Amino acid sequence: MASTAATGFKMTVVKPNVTSPCRMFSFRSPISVLELKEAAQAKIASFGHLSSFQPISRSCTPGPMNFNTFVTRAMAGESDKGSAPGLPIDLRGKRAFIAGVADDNGYGWAIAKSLAAAGAEILVGTWVPALNIFETSLRRGKFDESRVLPNGSLMEITKVYPLDAVYDGPEDVPDDVKKNKRYAGSSNWTVKEVVESVKNDFGSIDILVHSLANGPEVSKPLLETSRYGYLAAVSASSYSFVSLLKHFLPIMNPGGATISLTYIASERTIPGYGGGMSSAKAALESDTKVLAFEAGKKAQIRVNTISAGPLGSRAAKAIGFIEKMIDYSYTNAPLQKELLADEVGNAAAFLVSPLASAVTGSVVYVDNGLNIMGLAGDSPTLAV
């Protein structure tokens, strides 16, 4: 896919690689150095990128007179053709699978919108018990307002797949889940089956987004968390990413990228964020580094995770004190403003785009800078 990014016209001063300091260029018709300098300056004036614009002063005697020579190297891109300057994120021709979208107010939805705005085709994996409500709301236009993209069009979701990433294959599904009425009417929703369905439908993908997390005992302190609750949190919130990447990797195009979502509780103690969820996020971040190495070596796939600040999504409300976390962030983060889901979505679009082609194995913080704070700005200990 050809890039549409306008690279601009960049001027840098360099030493000419010539044998004679007086013969910088050869022309079929005479042209003075002054004319060359003025032409270069005029060209630069029409662009916004200028680096080290200084003449090289040399003493040279091509006859009876001395003069200054001005040598430049021009790196011209699409802007030479009259296109707008800038570095637009262009994901046209790319296909993204976003696991974990069940409504229109979480980070998964925001990431889907940003990728769609950049031109990517959107496929969605929705938790099976939430599938019917999500598809019905989508079909009836309840999400139309939040589907609006920057250009005024509506985000299109090409296909919605039922997904429960806790189960790798149908052989892993226990009988009580198979008989659960919330799963009735849906089929082929384990990780292996979903990947096979995507392969049959589209052949390949370029982008994988993991926006899944669940801890059945998240409201319990770690000391009160059961083995079941702890392992369930790790299974749904971190191993699910390993499983998705493992199974999607064979149908991901080289140069593709993945994104997952983590939280600062992986590094710092967040009282109330329990049930093994902090452990799951720590595992996810560690896995990001290992998978970046393995997927990069095996298939040239980049693996990054975004440590996002608190958002008042429906899923986050299960924690029980999300509004207090948001207020704390607003008060104490270096950037004292509301954190928007779109800001996380835009960061994800950058990370999966060619603009981040050398970025992998990274934890990227999108939290208004709260992660850098070692002491709360509103702490009573700071009061005078």
What does this protein look like?
- It is found in: Plastid, Chloroplast.
- Its EC number is 1.3.1.9.
- With 384 residues, the protein is an alpha/beta fold.
- 31% of the residues lie in helices and 15% in strands.
- It contains 9 helices and 9 strands.
- The protein has helices spanning 33-45, 107-117, 128-139, 175-178, 191-202, 227-248, 277-299, 322-332, 341-351; strands spanning 9-13, 72-76, 95-99, 121-127, 157-163, 205-210, 252-262, 302-308, 363-366.
- The strands form 2 sheets. A 7-stranded parallel β-sheet has the order 5-4-3-6-7-8-9, sandwiched between helices. A two-stranded antiparallel ribbon has the order 1-2.
- Helix 2 links the parallel strand 3 (95-99) and strand 4.
- Helix 2 packs across helix 9 (341-351) and helix 6 runs parallel beside helix 7.
- The longest helix is centred in the C-terminal third of the chain and has 23 residues, at 277-299.
- The chain is globular, with a radius of gyration of 27 Å.
- Residues 1-82 have low confidence and may be disordered.
Q: Number of helix segments?
A: 9
Number of strands: 9
Question: What is the strand arrangement across the widest sheet?
Answer: 5-4-3-6-7-8-9
> Mean of residue pLDDT?
82
Which regions are unreliable across 5 or more consecutive residues at pLDDT < 50? 1-82
Ends: how far apart? 59 Å
Shape: globular
Rg over CA atoms:
27 Å
Largest sheet descriptor: 7 strands, parallel
> Helices and strands, in N-to-C order?
EHEEHEHEHHEHEHEHHE
The helix-and-strand class reads: alpha/beta
Helix content: 25-40%
Strand content: 5-15%
Family: Belongs to the short-chain dehydrogenases/reductases (SDR) family. FabI subfamily.
Pathway: Lipid metabolism; fatty acid biosynthesis
Keywords: Chloroplast, Fatty acid biosynthesis, Fatty acid metabolism, Lipid biosynthesis, Lipid metabolism, Oxidoreductase, Plastid, Transit peptide
Organism: Dioscorea zingiberensis
